[in-house]
Design goal:
With 166 residues, the chain is mainly alpha-helical. It contains nine helices and two strands. A hairpin with a 5-residue loop joins strand 1 and strand 2.
Length: 166
């Protein structure tokens, strides 16, 4: 008697499993513009000098915090993969983008400070890499896209409404 162990242990994809994966992908697909904007914004932040970053500062926007958190969110696997699956960025750029993410992850914590952004060699190299990557991706502007940011006042009233995001 032959036993199909893959079938018993659920290793084989069933049509029901496949359709749930498709439904999940369709849900992520709705937000591909947000994921792309987030990815490009994260690289733009690394392309800027400290003075350019300071101009972005506001009551609800801390550029140093955004440098760290935005790139992590942009490279969340499901968001990152959706960008390529939908063809928003050609798959040929995937490895280079992942190398850039690794590079930023390797920036020592002791130099994550305003005073080092313009002076430390690693930050200068990061800025060069970010600008080169943006150029390769065909991104000509180095303006942070705040289309998805909603800003509230102290009473919870919307001051600026961004596009709906996930």
């Amino acid at each position: 008697m032959k036993i199909n162990l893959k079938s018993i242990f659920g290793s084989k994809t069933t049509s029901t499993d496949k359709s749930s994966v498709d439904k999940e992908e369709i849900e992520y697909d709705k937000y591909v513009d947000f994921y792309y904007t987030n990815l490009i914004n994260s690289i733009i932040l690394f392309s800027l000098t400290s003075k350019e970053l300071e101009k972005l500062s506001g009551p609800v926007f801390n550029p140093m915090t955004e440098l760290e958190s935005e790139i992590d969110y942009a490279f969340t696997p499901v968001c990152f993969e959706t960008i390529f699956r939908k063809g928003v960025i050609d798959k040929s750029f995937k490895d280079e983008l992942l190398k850039f993410k690794k590079w930023t992850d390797d920036i020592p914590s002791e130099i994550w400070d305003w005073e080092f952004i313009d002076k430390h060699e690693m930050w200068a190299s990061t800025r060069i890499k970010a600008n080169a990557l943006l150029d390769k991706l065909g991104v000509t502007s180095r303006t942070y896209n705040d289309d998805y940011i909603t800003i509230y006042d102290n009473e919870g009233n919307i001051i600026k409404k961004g596009k709906n995001n996930p």
